[in-house]
């Protein structure tokens, strides 16, 4: 990374990437941030949750202006390809430069939101930076439910304007985001007798793109859980499955599932492979031009568990096929913006139940509640126990924001035209921060980050340099 510009940004990004920081395990990354603050002789505070605020004095002559908050989150989504050996609790992210982009090696990159954290820290070392007083706010556990932002206490920030550096589209200014709720289903199951005269195999769905369950949900990418349930139904219809032992798929509530696996007892391996090939051909045609890497395969398996009762197996598959996935509605107010969506995120098999995690998003609170209630109702109809999270609020757009107006002037100087402000169908922490600090004037910016929440995640190198220049110019103008 030492060959990339701006060197000060990439230095901090490489430093953060060397520290494991899955959600809930950000202590080491927080210690690293604290050391940077102390090395610069700056005051800092760290709350009980792990959020950190660093107080940065104004550059000479700009001491009298109002403080500005720069904000990002320390944790990252931890996704890897099935054949990648990587322990997200102990191993660093292995960075590589691929043409115009920076990627990881078989894992998520963590540019969401490591590149935003790096930019905020880089202001400390930028020789040409001109700014008023700053507060650098680094939150934790954003990816699992914005836990850090939820725990922020009134009075922990002095600033009344905030620049969130967690948007993933160069040249855009975001002023709104969706709220969300997680709906968790626990389907009780019983196991029957072991079956004689059958072979036990593992069916594998892989090769899908996955991606961010908010930003990418409108593209119609394949959902491995739904494809697997569909394939199993086809095998049952052809009389090829003698028993279903387990289904496990997806990894995180906010990632579109790329891979899924089932353990089944079968009567004829050759017939099963031919049937899987037929399903693969059909679904590949349906996903043509959108998600073309699908693979369905099987291998022998020695899972010792007894198969589910047939009635429970079919009840599970029916539920997985009935649960909605994808966008539900587009916004009428902001053309092109997904307004409401749901993600069939993970399936986990235990001895006596199947856990299914889903997440709903919407920029309209009533739609969010309705959709979450619909998913819960389907779960109850199938006999599942339902739990729902408290959720998090959306961020209502403020087109009259003074910070937005100032940012548009900077963008116009940089790009020749002021961008039309946008909202994003994802959960930015601005919603919660605005709830905790009423009157906070906020925008969100960032470089081009593609395929976040998947091992294909990458950040465009040139866009990092452009976003950095925008940030420096905006801080100078605000002071």
| Rg | 24 Å
Strands side by side in the biggest sheet: 1-2-6-3-7-19
Number of domains: 2
Reported for the largest beta sheet, the result is: 6 strands, mixed
CATH class bucket of the largest domain: Alpha Beta
Total beta strand runs? 21
Structural class: alpha+beta
- Which oligomeric form is depicted? single chain
- The H-level CATH homologous superfamily of the largest domain, spelled out, is Zn peptidases
Named CATH topology of the largest domain: Aminopeptidase
> What is the rounded distance between the termini?
31 Å
- CATH architecture of the largest domain, by name, is 3-Layer(aba) Sandwich
Tally of helical segments: 11
Strand fraction: 25-35%
Helix content: 25-40%
Mean of pLDDT: 95
Features:
479 residues, Aminopeptidase, Alpha-Beta Plaits, 2 domains, 5-stranded antiparallel beta sheet
Summarize the structure in words.
This protein folds into two domains: 7-178 and 394-478, 3-Layer(aba) Sandwich (Aminopeptidase), CATH 3.40.630.10; 182-388, Alpha-Beta Plaits. It has eleven helices and 21 strands. It has helices at residues 7-17, 27-39, 111-122, 147-150, 224-237, 269-286, 310-322, 365-381, 402-415, 430-436, 461-478; strands at 43-46, 52-56, 68-73, 95-98, 101-104, 134-139, 161-164, 174-177, 179-188, 199-206, 241-249, 260-266, 295-300, 326-330, 338-349, 353-362, 385-388, 422-424, 441-444, 449-450, 458-460. Helix 1 (7-17) crosses helix 3, helix 5 crosses helix 6 (269-286) and helix 5 (224-237) crosses helix 7 (310-322).
